[in-house]
Write a structure and sequence with these properties.
single chain, 292 residues, Aldehyde Oxidoreductase, domain 3, TIM Barrel, six-stranded parallel β-sheet, four-stranded antiparallel β-sheet, 11 helices
Length: 292
């Protein structure tokens, strides 16, 4: 297992999976209801067709359980665990109609989330031996953020602020509006910091070295270094020292992430973890038997 992975709130999982099942079969499964006998049982194996890291077991299980509570799902490889091509990740047993109706919803969730976990693990492996931590971003699928960020943790990554309510982050557009309004950046940041609730992270984005002193004077606890060259990243890390934590952002991919990490930045945020991860190739192979 890559790291201990906390479970998702099952109530939230069930609500979202129920919504997905309703979307996929709003008035029933016309094909299954008309061609599959009610007295057939199915046994299905969720099989890996390529190597990866598991994520989404609760959603996969819920898809079949909510389709028909008589269906039993046995997870063989749990969230955060790696697998290779050919591994049986889970087995599903129960009434065939429910299994077939839930198949696509269950697969969609587990393929998507395992893809995120697998890509995250590749980034984590790429920076192994450095002090850099891989972070996700808010570039997630609307309404699916909690699941996609869970998948990042399954892959060994770390979650950034969950939402706009969970952290102060003044980015380039915020700073541009302040400048257009004639506001002094350091003074405004100091004013805001004094009124923040305890525990709210205080982060400011810069895209030039000459902005750093102003944001540090304003009390920034984290400085996001956006689209810096490797040389400027190293300079920025040295300039900031232990006065704030550093986060590299922009231009991050599996080819560049190691070099970025070696500049000494504390964290590296990677939007691609959630907005560009390909779905992992997992298949559900079904066999049918008469009910007893």
């Amino acid at each position: 297992m890559i790291s201990p992975v906390p479970e998702l709130d099952q109530t939230i999982v069930d609500a979202k999976v129920a919504e997905a099942l309703s979307e996929d079969a709003p008035t029933g499964d016309v094909t299954v209801d008309n061609i599959i006998p009610a007295d057939l049982n199915a046994t299905a194996a969720l099989t890996a067709r390529e190597p990866g890291v598991m994520a989404g077991e609760q959603l996969f299980e819920a898809a079949f359980r909510l389709s028909d509570p008589r269906i039993e799902v046995t997870i063989e490889i749990h969230d955060g665990m790696p697998f290779v091509a050919g591994d049986c990740v889970a087995t599903v047993t129960g009434p065939a109609r429910g299994v077939l109706t839930a198949e696509r919803v269950g697969l969609n969730f587990v393929q998507r989330l395992s893809g995120i976990a697998t890509l995250t693990h590749r980034y984590v492996e790429a920076v192994a031996g450095t002090s850099a931590v891989i972070l996700d971003t808010r570039k997630t699928t609307p309404t699916l953020r909690i699941f996609e960020r869970h998948a990042v943790v399954c892959g060994g990554g770390t979650n950034h602020r969950f939402s706009l309510s969970h952290g102060f982050m003044a980015k380039d557009n915020h700073l541009a509006v302040l400048a257009a309004g004639g506001k002094d950046l350091s003074s405004e940041l100091q004013r805001v910091m004094g009124g923040l609730a305890p525990g709210i992270p205080f982060e400011v984005e810069v895209d030039r070295l000459d902005q750093i002193d102003a944001v540090l004077a304003g009390g920034a606890e984290i400085v996001m270094l956006d689209n810096f060259s490797l040389d400027d990243l190293a300079r920025a890390v040295a300039l900031i020292g232990d006065r704030a934590r550093t986060e590299a952002s922009g231009g991050v991919n599996l080819t560049t992430v190691r070099d970025i990490a070696e500049t000494g930045v504390n964290t590296i945020s990677v939007g691609a973890l959630t907005h560009s991860a390909p779905a992992l190739d997992l298949g559900l192979d079904i066999s049918l038997t008469p009910a007893t």
